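Dear support,

I submitted the protein below through the web form. The confirmation email said the job was done, but the results page showed an empty box. After a refresh the structure appeared. I'm attaching both so you can tell me whether what I see now is the final result or a partial one.
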Amino acid sequence: MPVFSVTPDAVELDGKPFQVLSGAIHYFRVLPEQWGDRLRKLRAMGLNTIETYVPWNLHEPRPGEFDFGGRIDLGRFLAEAAEAGLYAIVRPGPYICAEWDNGGLPAWLRAAEEIPLRCHDPRFLEPVDRFFDRLVPHLVEHQVTRGGNVLMVQVENEYGSYGSDRRYLRHLADGLRARGIEVPLFTSDGPTDLMVTGGTLDDVYATANFGSRPAERLAEMAALRRWPSFCMEYWNGWFDHHGKDHHVRPAAEAAATLAEMVDAGASVNLYMAHGGTNFGFLAGANAVGEHLDDVYLPDVTSYDYDAPLSEHGALTPKYWAFREVLGRGVELPDPPSEQPKTLPAGRVELTERISLLDCLDVLSTGTVHSAVPKTLEELGQAYGLAVYRTRVPGPRTGYQLRVKGLHDRALVLVDGSPAGVLDRNGPVALPLEIADDAAAVTLVVEAMGRVNYGPLVGERKGLVGGVFHGQQLVHGYEIDPVPLDDLSVLPWGRETGAAGPVFHRGVLHVDEVRDAFLALPGWHKGYVWVNGFNLGRYWERGPQVTLYVPWPLLREGDNEIIVLELDAEPAHPVIEVREQPDLGPATTYIAT
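What the results page shows now:
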């Protein structure tokens, strides 16, 4: 069986120099039926290795409840990579960043208290160790030392961008070894003194993350930690935020930077080689500002990343440019000659509707009574909506209703009528005049992605502060958690008339199962389900216009489409099927 090793002088496979040519593809962002297709295409591009993160929040959605099957069968994914002729690099966290909700950390970590994260604190280490006890056996059997294809395993992730607790890093590294990891361990950080001195261990392979100027970046890394040159994240594209442009990077320029590293003998991992999709509620977010704790920027549903293999598996100009670089002097498998087929253009009328507030009896996990608002985590909920109902005494005039710590957005209804929308970036208040002895106030709060990078990782969702009328705290709530994880309970046909968010339903008829793209012109903000599967969020703020529908979600004949519109019903409840994706107006972006 192969022997892979890393010393301060060389990366070797079976005693000979080995250049790792890797690309990131996340099994949890691609449906299992499509893994083989994507992996074979990446091998044909010239990669000899793939890399993946492991999202803790998917594998342990509730404390002590583990899932390593179905859509997130890591073992099956690694086996399929081996069948495609690819080695693997695994990055198990516990924190992964990845533009993924909470950086992969489970929301339940802070259900009871604001425990310290990503440090040597027993309140964090105990659940981490429990997770690794269950996760690592799925990796051990796939190591090259056991006849598998896993070459390397990461210790934490970009830790120097966050903290400086080397005792914590040592605990993780020693724990991986004790659980059977025999292949080389590594860390990955930006090549700066701040990040490397805080995020590395002297006896663990230190790799660098960057997007440009490779000779300069690798020299900086070598000066800080003497290890063979390895760019663990070559940012050949970038991700998108709502309200901003779609990021693209010219294929020729990205390929020239890649060629500079390959020609210098450096190992490299493309981030991303194939991005996939942030299905459901799992797109992350950033907070920007000098200390990464100011303006909140949620990520879009698509994780196309302007990668060489597009979100739906199409071979892009960047794919061919990279193949030319990676395939020099090497015989590569032939890539497919045809691009993925898509459904023909069409329209779907959504003919049924029902108000969310008229369905709380079946959607809520149980009404909670509390003197003060509770967060989603305190309600035992990770994602979705929460409906807070309270009464504000009156009569009174000249005051505003203000929400402190709104995470992230709220539709406000007063006596059953919409009064406005509040947002964590502002506005967070609106006028509330009360002519009678009280006003019934309802806040339908949407949790968008948790911040996945920087000091706000671990933030709670819902109403994390208080609700005020003027300077006075508003007390006394009925709270309905609405996780939206099962829409089969919706009572279609029930009489409905409540204001607020509305579900719409229609039928998409398919003669031949293919990929599809859904556009929602005239709609404002919400989520789309296809045959019960949550595709993710749409928002008129863009830049993303179409949502990707992978072919495995569809079946020949009729397919159920449900749209939850949160803000305002469209004049015509129709969605469009388009043959090509539209990720919005583009801007050229080259990461540093």
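Response: this is the final, complete result; the empty box was a page-load delay. Residues 114 and 286 are 20 Å apart (CA to CA).
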